[in-house]
Amino acid sequence: MSSKLKEIIEKIADLPSMPDVAFEVMREVDNPTANALTVSNVLARDPSLSARVLQLANSAYYGMPREVASIRGAIVLLGMRTVKSLSLVAATFPWLQKAMQGKGVDPDYLWNHSLAVAFVSRAIARATGTVNPEQAFCIGVLHNLGIVVLCTLKEADVLALAQMQDGSDTPFTIVEESAFGFNHADLGAALAESWNLPEAYSDAIRHHHNPDLATRNVMFADILHLADTLVRNADIDEGLGNLVFQVSEHSASRLGLEPDVIEQVAESAFLELNGSGKIFQQVA
Ligand SMILES: [Fe+2]
Ligand SMILES: [Fe+2]
What we know:
The chain is mainly alpha-helical.
């Protein structure tokens, strides 16, 4: 870890942090004695987080047969692991939504982009049967946390950098590295590590723009890279959409995916995404 990156990570203590309850949910779900009651009791300590978890559980994305009114009901229907993922996503949403506010780009950009990457990642994980689709979804939601942190730090004007890059074909990660000594992928991975998230998160996030360099959790990195590339090519998000990133030609072949299959998978994921509507109505 570069010393500049270390310095930034130390400052993360001053940044908006993950709600303790989201971490407690993660720990509780891994506890062998956990059940619907113990997990819902933990979530009950943070009513606004619980409300967002319920909104997410009831979104068309989960296709529940009927509306669930309680966290306990959501756990019974969706399972503890899914509710754990939902807590993580719900805890991150306010950051993703706020990071771009007042920066002159679409404030919903990061959230829309991250959610699209999550949907496509999950679809690829399912199609290939390689990794847990729910985990791939969560990694997709969190993959640009480094950008959130950069946007929060005054000395790292990521949008000025983005403008600088406009028109040149130098990959944005290289532009970041020459400005800060690290890029948003390194920063996001360091943040995931500091939260003690499973290694798959930090490994995939670190290599989402250069999966060929991944040595662990290569499939997660390939899925995330492919999903990110597909979403950027589909042009469904605006904001930092013009940035140039390297694209690996090896991710798809490592996953054993033919181009026509990739197209089908992406298409169905985009349909699913469009059908899910606005998941969160407001940020509590
Ligand atoms: Fe990225
Ligand atoms: Fe991305």
